[in-house]
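To illustrate the input format used throughout this study, we show a single complete record. The first block contains the structure-token representation of the backbone; no residue identities are included at this stage. The design step must infer an amino acid for every position from geometry alone.
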């Protein structure tokens, strides 16, 4: 059932009995118009019906309660100045135990009064479950899903009869992706958004979902393929890094290591005549990075800790002078990441051309690499900023060569 709506808005609006205070949800096109109860607590329902009486008059929806308060979500256009002003996010009902229980009661009371109310769609075809999923309101999602089966809310889990043809979990996960794309300083997905995604997927009976903790670990850092080691290193990124690390065995490529040695160390080893021994240690570091990338799971993460552990077991003596002169695993990681990025689509794309069987610099470079073609795609495949951060490289140092 779809409800008519004010033409001035693109989604449901409920007006407060008191003076409304619009507040924007950062990164969305949604504003909350919040009224205060006598006790001063904010209200953050996504239900269209928050009271006992539902009156439809022409194109206006009026939701009335006992005059204490009313709340609404006003999804307006991006040009609306109140939404673009950067106001702080209104507190939702998960903020405290008191508000949580109050809103749970309000939802159940609405259902008891009119069971159909919990599935009423707005002008865009969105049910309360769709709206709560997109806004990452975990408590509202849980409360709606806990209603009796005859409420029909579970049917909304797979409902696509809305303007965008998306299910609640698709709205939820699209918003997670948008938050990442819109924020240059994005570091990880918000916990509540991931909890909503898990709750919705679990409710649909998705197989192989695992525990909530497992799900959050797999997707916290933006993995969309489900195969990222540690939740952040995708298989395609791993292959890129491994291919570059192998280049250290080519003497013409290993010469570029010189540019990744801090200038003060270069002066020191040149004065002492220990340059060749130092470079052997540097090569040993890259070989250890290559070895780490060959493992699966957490052991296959080329973090400084894992690389040092491998060096200690395999090439401890070779790398001894390297470390004694101030050498760092981080410099080896920078060399690998920098050159990998240069050959990716963010650079000249030469690595991808070699894998995809194209020509490179006018030469036929052979057939498609079938192993590469079979690897799953992931949102983390080209996120070098994420790799730098998760490998523990200093944020205040340049990624490229020192000179």
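Output of the design step:
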């Amino acid at each position: 059932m779809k409800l008519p709506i004010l033409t001035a808005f693109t989604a449901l609006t409920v007006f407060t009995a008191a003076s409304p205070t619009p507040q924007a949800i950062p990164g969305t096109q949604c504003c909350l118009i919040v009224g205060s109860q006598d006790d001063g607590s904010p209200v953050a329902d996504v239900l269209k019906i928050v009271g006992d009486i539902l009156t439809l008059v022409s194109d206006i929806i009026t939701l009335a309660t006992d005059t204490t308060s009313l709340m609404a979500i006003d999804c307006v256009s991006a040009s609306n100045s109140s939404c673009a002003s950067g106001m702080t996010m209104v507190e939702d009902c998960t903020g405290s135990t008191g508000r949580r229980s109050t809103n749970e009661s309000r939802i159940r009371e609405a259902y008891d009064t009119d069971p159909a109310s919990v599935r009423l769609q707005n002008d865009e075809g969105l049910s309360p479950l769709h709206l709560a999923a997109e806004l990452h309101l975990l408590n509202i999602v849980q409360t709606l899903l806990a209603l009796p089966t005859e409420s029909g809310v579970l049917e909304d889990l797979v409902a696509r009869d809305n303007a965008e043809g998306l299910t609640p979990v698709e709205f939820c996960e699209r918003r997670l992706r948008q938050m990442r794309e819109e924020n240059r300083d994005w570091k990880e997905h918000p916990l509540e958004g991931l909890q909503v995604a898990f709750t919705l997927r679990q409710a649909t009976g998705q197989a192989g979902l695992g525990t909530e903790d497992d799900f959050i670990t797999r997707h916290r850092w933006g993995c969309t393929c489900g195969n990222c080691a540690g939740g952040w290193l995708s298989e395609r990124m791993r292959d890129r890094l491994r291919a570059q690390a192998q280049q250290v065995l080519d003497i013409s490529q290993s010469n570029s290591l010189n540019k990744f040695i801090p200038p003060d160390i270069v002066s020191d080893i040149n004065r002492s005549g220990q340059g060749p021994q130092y470079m052997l240690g540097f090569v040993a570091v890259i070989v250890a990075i290559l070895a780490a990338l060959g493992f699966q799971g957490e052991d296959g993460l080329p973090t400084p800790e894992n690389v040092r552990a491998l060096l200690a077991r395999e090439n401890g003596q070779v790398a001894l002078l390297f470390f004694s002169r101030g050498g760092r695993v981080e410099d080896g990681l920078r060399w690998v990441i920098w050159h990998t990025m240069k050959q990716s689509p963010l650079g000249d794309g030469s690595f991808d051309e070699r894998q995809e069987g194209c020509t490179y610099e006018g030469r036929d470079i052979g057939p498609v690499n079938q192993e590469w073609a079979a690897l799953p795609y992931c949102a983390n495949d080209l996120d070098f900023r994420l790799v730098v951060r998760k490998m523990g490289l200093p944020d205040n140092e340049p990624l490229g060569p020192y000179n």
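Structural context for interpreting the output: The first strand starts at residue 21 and ends at 24. The chain has a mean pLDDT of 75.
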